[in-house]
TrEMBL record:
Keywords: Methyltransferase, S-adenosyl-L-methionine, Transferase
InterPro entries, sorted: Bact_Chemotaxis_MeTrfase, Chemotaxis_MeTrfase_CheR, CheR_C, CheR_MeTrfase, CheR_N, CheR_N_sf, SAM-dependent_MTases_sf
Designated name of the protein: Chemotaxis protein methyltransferase
Organism: Falsiroseomonas selenitidurans
Family annotation (Pfam families): CheR, CheR_N
Record function comment: Methylation of the membrane-bound methyl-accepting chemotaxis proteins (MCP) to form gamma-glutamyl methyl ester residues in MCP.
EC number: 2.1.1.80
Domain of life: Bacteria
Catalytic reactions on record: L-glutamyl-[protein] + S-adenosyl-L-methionine = [protein]-L-glutamate 5-O-methyl ester + S-adenosyl-L-homocysteine
Length: 279
């Protein structure tokens, strides 16, 4: 009687220091995310699901897959597994208040063109919050050429954002009037963004450290709770690129724990993690 061989439970597989260093170097090269030794347990926990899916006996075998003919495809799945996707509707609400009360009223009426980029959009709650803010603050929005670009390195998150469907409990943070106007209940547990809202947002997979295919400049960039995973030189290069793609006087919104102090001198700090391009 023959026994069926099974791969060990990935939860029992150890991630050696050398294997962690190899994987961390790959993640940093592809995404810019810096994983210190303190993230070793996180990497083990996130990637053991990939070992289980691929029925691999060790992290050494996983690294061999990354070096093999299907490595590029698995690299995408690895980054999807590693990236943190903590988000929510109207998270850090002061940014949306500033957008509605300060940035939008000051837009030049000539041309009526508006472009906003949600860089590192995760599963889409941020760009949809931006879209709802535009609808509420701009009664004449239909007369504008307004678009929101939403990008993320995690292709799974981009797919979720494109679908625009969320657990009903996640929509509880949307102000009631906006929820009534722009959110549709599919059933007791699931809601969907209204088609008119989806039409304002275009989701695309994008690595912030790679080439940016966009043409034209943006009035505002939301890049919140993203650069905390990058080292200072990488942050400086990214902020320079944001400055180059913003219109004169354009705005940059960053996360509550992020700062441009001693990283970029191209923006004026307006308070509460809001910055305006000055050069």
């Amino acid at each position: 009687m023959s026994a069926t061989l099974q791969a060990p439970d990935p939860g029992e597989i150890q991630l050696s220091a050398a294997e962690f260093a190899d994987l961390a170097a790959r993640v940093r090269r592809v995404s810019g995310i810096a994983l210190g030794e303190g993230k070793r347990d996180l990497v083990h926990g996130r990637l053991r699901r990939r070992l289980r899916a691929l029925r691999l006996p060790s992290f050494a075998a996983y690294i061999a897959v990354l070096d093999g003919p299907e490595g590029a495809e698995e690299e995408v799945r690895m980054i999807n597994a590693i990236t943190t996707n903590l988000t929510g509707f109207f998270r850090e609400p002061h940014h949306f208040a500033h957008l509605a009360q300060q940035l939008l009223p000051a837009l030049p009426r000539q041309g009526r063109r508006l472009r906003i980029w949600s860089a590192g959009c995760s599963s889409g709650e941020e760009p949809y919050s931006i879209a709802m803010t535009l609808c509420q603050a701009m009664p004449d929005l239909a007369q504008w050429d307004a678009r929101i670009l939403a990008t993320d390195i995690d292709t799974d998150m981009v797919a979720l954002g494109t679908a625009g469907r969320y657990a009903a409990e996640r929509a509880a943070s949307i102000p009631p009037a906006l929820r009534q106007a722009h959110v549709r209940a599919l059933d007791a547990e699931t809601v969907e963004m209204a088609p008119s809202l989806k039409a304002l947002v275009r989701f695309l997979p994008l690595n912030l450290l790679g080439a940016w295919p966009m043409r034209g400049r943006f009035d505002a960039v939301f890049c919140r709770n993203v650069v905390i995973y990058f080292d200072k030189p990488t942050q400086a290069r990214l902020f320079d690129r944001f400055a180059d793609i913003l219109v004169p006087g354009g705005h940059l919104y960053v996360g509550h724990s992020e700062t441009l102090h001693r990283v970029s001198d191209r923006f004026q700090h307006l308070g509460r993690t809001v910055h305006r391009l000055v050069r």
